[in-house]
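ARCHIVE CARD
SHELF: 3
SLOT: left
DATA:
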Amino acid sequence: MNNVFVYCEIEGTTVAEVSQELLTKGRKLANELGVELEAVVAGTGIKGKVEDQILPYGVDKLHVFDAEGLFPYTSAPHTSVLVNLFKEEKPQICLMGATVIGRDLGPRVSSSLFSGLTADCTELEIGSYDDVKTKKHYDNLLYQIRPAFGGNIVATIVNPENRPQMATVRSGVMQKAIYEGQAKGEVVYPDVAKYVPTTDFVVKVIDRHVEAAKHNLKGAAIVVAGGYGVGSKEGFDQLFVLAKELHGEVGASRAAVDAGWVDADRQVGQTGVTVHPKVYIACGISGQIQHIAGMQDAGIIISINNDPDAPINKIADYVINGTVEEVVPKLIKYYKQNSK
């Protein structure tokens, strides 16, 4: 009762990385609250194949719903699984990925249970809240933190009354880690028929195509990212040359993607990919809140910018004052000379 729950997405019998990231965060939240961490996974033919991908992240209890029709994902049965399970278990927090599935499932569950839902959170914390109107004080609420109003502010959202407190988080925002402590590791296999009516299976998936990401920004140790200050698609060619010399990947800000200079799946930020490289080289990027949310945890941040007052310079470890056209060719020349 009142535990922290994480909904785990799967592709076949493979648990999504974002779910493992959320299990890691969920474990920390559960420890802070003094409750248990529970996980839910639903699919077809997954019994005995997903447990080892979930339990090592500190799960006390894993609910495995295994039945025909639960994979590929469709809205109705997965909604019934969570809604009916949550009516029994009454969790205080539920986390899920801000993926295509999470964005479909989360609102359905929250509206059915009359609870709140905050999308695309960049941070999750536990804290207290004083309601000015009612004069009530609340302890141990989930702070659901995300950029708002076009990224001009960072909003902290709370849900004092209704449960569960629900949040979605994009892949890469949280970092996954095997849990070093002790967890119960209990696994239960509920009777799906008790949770999902047969009418929920009326929708059948006739054909399905999943295309893997072309670029591995999340796994790159070095990211060379360009913004609107790069100036053109040809300007990005220089960034690709530099990234190749450094054995890194090329990223971009939303402005550069919107200009059509680079593929959308290279976008770093709140509405793109969140990266944790050892080195992040920001070329001609102003550094709006949405972009910073996707790269602020980089080991070393280097900013190349001709605007000394650019917001990104405030979080950069090193600032090179100059245009991308001036600086990047010199970096390429230097690395070519010194990498032989």
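SLOT: right
DATA:
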Amino acid sequence: MKIKKFFSDKSILQGDAAVWMIFLLLCMVSVIEVYSASSRMTFGTGQYWRPIVQHGSYIGLGILAAWVIHRIPCNYFKIGGTFVMHLIAYPLLVWAFFAPKTNDAARWVDMGIIKMQPSEVAKISLVVFSAFILASLRDEKGASGTAFKIVAVEALLTIMLIAPENASTAGILFLVILGICFFAQVRTKILAWIVCAIIGGGAFALTAANSIPEETLVEWRKSDSKLLHRAQTWVHRITDKNELPEDPAKYNLMDNQQVTHATIAVATCNIVGKGPGNSVQRDFLPQAFSDFIYAIIIEELGIFGGGGVMFLYLLLMYRAMKIASKCKALFPSYLVMGLSLMMVVQAMVNMAVAVGAFPVTGQPLPLISRGGTSIFVNCAYIGMILSVSRSAKKISEEDTTKKAPDGVGSDGD
């Protein structure tokens, strides 16, 4: 009961207590592991505290943003996500498409004061828009065909702007929107056609990837084409053309450096790990503090620590489903499912990449990886989920009060 009262309507923190605890635990893991994994950033400068002070500031501001957002009634997100964020997201996506490349991809825009990824803004905007349209346009069988067409056109436009420079983000966004459509009861026939199209498109892509000569891929990489310069990267990730020598001693550690050192980190973790701050591979693994931080978590915290982090994301998904089931209105229900799916699917992809179960994608681990835009956007997701949970909690308590005899409510036991 004390925990319940700590997250009551009269306290500073409101909404679902489990979501708050998951959120804060992930932030704690982030601060510890990013500090450990940032050793490569301090070698040349000697400024050992700068990376963690900067990251800690982002985390602190992100928590503050989540707190502010969780106090906003969820109906206000319809206006913010559907109109305001759309007006921001699309110009930024076009800007990023023609922006200078970072790590061989034009995913960032430099606005002078800040440097951000427009795809992160576009993701949250599309999720809110899809939830709003699917909730608004319904018939007795579920989301109408008109609603699906509007969402499909909007999603296709957004994905086409993101995919040339960030195919993995586009793929995750597609799966999340498909998940929202399923939850919104879009016609089974439509969803079946989409699944068939995915299978057919995947088979075609695999066949095409294996048939394109390497010389052609090299020419495309050197070209100025915005659509083809990353084709070699995509093909290599699909086909895994990096052949391993028969003698392990002849393996060049500099070939596919990220996968190699991430694999070493996972393979040498033992059950309990080497302990926080004792990673060895952080000094050799590029993007150890971002895309491959889960490998460092496993190396330092072991199988139990890595499994614990995965459990937190799965628990977040479970709590989101519970919150969605309590919502009487459709928009907040669809919204909380979409936001949680976005975070959990991205987390699963990141973890699969780190352990070698999925091709390298460049996806950060939500709420843990170092980064500005990603942290703020994922904290906004949490704030919006908590806002919905706050409203759903009030409705649940009102229903309990009405049903209880002699006016005894949920707090009466």
